[in-house]
């Protein structure tokens, strides 16, 4: 077991699979999806043990992401988990930054002051909005929470400006699809204007959130379950890029059903479910590629152990025969993909 570090790596911790919305692009909206047969919250003690394991073995990642298939602010101990994550990152240098993805339905005013800080560790909050009007919000998010969400984020921004808080960095996220494409420009203008009013520096970005501290109005591509749908959404994303005055991203317009590339997820993106199951990427929401339970095994034992090492050797040959969910995965064909280079793989195999 030899822990390694690669640029662009991130550890995902699912605080809960419970959610306050039912977004069309999420498993929460899929009736009978196995990830939601049982709902619950990750154990705080399990999170602490993951951090302790990383510290003992010298493991580290660029980013810790507190989110997967539920709303993280619903966890009863969210604030304690968030603060513990910052401490672990600073004290043991486990992570270069901490990132949270939230739909802001539960970004209550009483919580906001405790989140704002001037710590040495970068922190980024993605507010998943995907709409600029109540009607489109309900169409995309499944429930009507638009006005409350905007109110919550407005309060967050006002407090951040008033306190001159360095962190968290604010990302206004818009996952582009044919269901909401008509609102992209107004979405951009709304949040740029709001930041300007509060004298908060802000910019627009596509595909990847750039380094920095200013707020970002961020347009992301939708990842899809079929090649036909992915091709459609790739075209829509390219159209939005042009509307926003950006160069169209280089995306496949014809996508095969077979995944023939080398996926960086096997090296860079471990995911821990709320029950403590460890898998390889966020696409594996049925846990078909699970490595094992962190209730029974240490994180380093599984992620840098022999089972995952064997999988990496196979994936380096683009052999997914023993990894069913990877055979038709389109993440490597999207702009949301974390790449791995031949040189990185060669140095580790």
How would you describe this protein?
It contains eleven helices and ten strands. Helix 1 (44-57) packs parallel to helix 2. 39% of the residues are buried. With 349 residues, it is of the alpha/beta class. The mean pLDDT is 92. 34% of the residues lie in helices and 15% in strands. It has a ten-stranded mixed β-sheet. The protein is globular and about 55 Å long.
Summary of the model, kept short:
The chain is α/β, with parallel strands linked by helices. It is built from eleven helices and ten strands.
SSE arrangement:
Layout: E1 10-13, H1 44-57, E2 61-66, H2 78-92, E3 95-102, H3 112-115, E4 123-128, H4 134-141, H5 146-163, E5 169-176, H6 184-197, E6 202-206, E7 215-221, H7 227-243, H8 265-268, E8 271-272, E9 277-279, E10 292-293, H9 299-303, H10 306-316, H11 342-348
Parallel strand pairs: 1-2, 1-8, 2-3, 3-4, 4-5, 5-7, 6-7
Antiparallel strand pairs: 8-9, 9-10
Helix pairs in contact: 1-2
Assembly type = single chain
Order of helices and strands: EHEHEHEHHEHEEHHEEEHHH
Q: Kindly estimate the percentage of residues that lie in beta strands according to DSSP.
A: 5-15%
**End-to-end gap:** 12 Å
Specify the number of helices: 11
Shape estimate:
globular
Largest sheet: 10 strands, mixed
Query: Taking strands numbered 1, 2, ... along the chain, how are they ordered across the largest sheet?
Result: 6-7-5-4-3-2-1-8-9-10
Q: Which regions are unreliable across 5 or more consecutive residues at pLDDT < 50?
A: none
What share of the residues lie within helices?
25-40%
Average residue-wise pLDDT: 92
Computed structural class = alpha/beta
How many strands in all?
A: 10
Radius of gyration: 20 Å
């Amino acid at each position: 077991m030899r822990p390694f570090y690669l640029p662009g790596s991130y550890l995902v911790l699912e605080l809960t699979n419970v959610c306050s919305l039912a977004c069309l692009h999420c498993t929460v909206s899929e009736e009978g999806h196995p990830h939601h047969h049982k709902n619950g919250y990750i154990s705080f003690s399990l999170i602490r043990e993951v951090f302790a394991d990383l510290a003992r073995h010298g493991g580290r990642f660029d980013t810790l992401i507190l989110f997967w298939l539920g709303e993280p602010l619903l966890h009863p101990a969210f604030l304690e988990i968030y603060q513990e994550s910052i401490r672990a990152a600073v004290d043991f240098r486990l992570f270069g930054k901490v990132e949270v993805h939230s739909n802001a339905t539960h970004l209550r005013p009483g919580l906001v002051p405790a989140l704002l800080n001037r710590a040495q560790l970068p922190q980024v909050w993605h507010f998943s909005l995907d709409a600029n009007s109540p009607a489109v919000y309900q169409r995309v998010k499944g429930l009507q929470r638009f006005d409350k969400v905007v109110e919550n984020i407005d309060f967050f921004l006002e407090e951040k400006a008033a306190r001159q808080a360095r962190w968290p960095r604010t990302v206004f996220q818009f996952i582009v699809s044919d269901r909401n494409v008509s609102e992209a420009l107004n979405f951009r203008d709304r949040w740029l204007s709001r930041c300007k009013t509060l004298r908060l520096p802000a910019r627009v970005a596509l595909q990847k959130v750039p380094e920095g501290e200013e707020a970002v109005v961020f347009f992301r591509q939708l990842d899809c379950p079929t090649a036909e749908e992915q091709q459609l959404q790739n075209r829509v994303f390219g159209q939005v890029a042009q509307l926003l005055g950006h160069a169209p991203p280089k995306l496949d317009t014809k996508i095969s059903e077979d995944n023939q590339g080398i996926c960086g997820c096997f090296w860079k993106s471990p995911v821990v479910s709320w029950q403590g199951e460890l898998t390889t990427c966020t696409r594996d929401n049925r846990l078909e590629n699970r490595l094992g339970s962190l209730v029974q095994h240490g994180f380093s034992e599984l992620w840098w152990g022999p089972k995952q090492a064997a999988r990496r050797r196979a994936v380096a040959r683009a052999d997914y025969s023993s990894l069913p969910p990877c055979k038709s995965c389109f993440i490597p064909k999207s702009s949301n993909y974390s790449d791995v280079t031949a040189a990185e793989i060669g140095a580790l195999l």
